Structure formats: structure tokens, C-alpha cells
Amino acid sequence: MIELLSNPSDIKRNKVKKLLIDSGALDYAKNKAEEFIALAKCDLQVLAPSTFRTILLDITDKILNRSC
């Protein structure tokens, strides 16, 4: 992995992506992110309803569903 990433190119990036998909690492990372987002949303509920709390809740969804 270090060798593939040391001199990046599209071919190497595609190899790394395939390795991450095949190993289940991407699914694992997405599941962990979903767990952390759920915890964050629960923690945000202690704040009084406000525009700011709504924005923070919206950000959690955007973070989880963003694409690179």
C-alpha cells in the first residue's frame, strides 16, 4: 500500500481502490462513520432547538453522504 501511494498515478489509485473494496475496508469505514454520526446526532440533542443545531445535524448527513 505504501509503495502504491508513494508515487500516485491514476493506475495506482485504481489499484488501491480495488484493494480497499475487495478487503471490505471501505464498507467497514462507512459502517464506523455511520456509528459515529449516530452518536453525534444523539449528543446534539442536548442542545436547545436552534438554527445552529439544525445546521450541525445537517452537516452530519452531508459528511456521511459526500463523494470524493
Describe the protein:
With 68 residues, the chain is mainly α. The mean pLDDT is 89. It is 79% helix and 0% strand. It is elongated and about 50 Å long. It has helices spanning 2-6, 10-23, 25-44, 51-65. It is built from four helices and no strands. Helix 3 packs antiparallel against helix 4 (51-65). It has one domain.
Q: State the helical fraction.
A: over 70%
- Give the low-pLDDT segments: none
Strand/helix succession: HHHH
- In total, the number of strands is 0
Question: Roughly how many Å is the radius of gyration?
Answer: 17 Å
Please identify the structural class as seen in this structure.
mainly alpha
Alpha plus pi helix count: 4
Profile the largest sheet: none
* Number of domains as seen in the coordinates: 1
Q: N-to-C terminal Cα separation, in Å?
A: 19 Å
Coarse morphology:
elongated
Rounded average pLDDT = 89
Q: What is the percentage of strand-forming residues?
A: under 5%
Which terms would index this structure?
68 residues, mainly alpha, 4 helices, 79% helix
In summary, what is this structure?
With 68 residues, the protein is mainly alpha-helical.
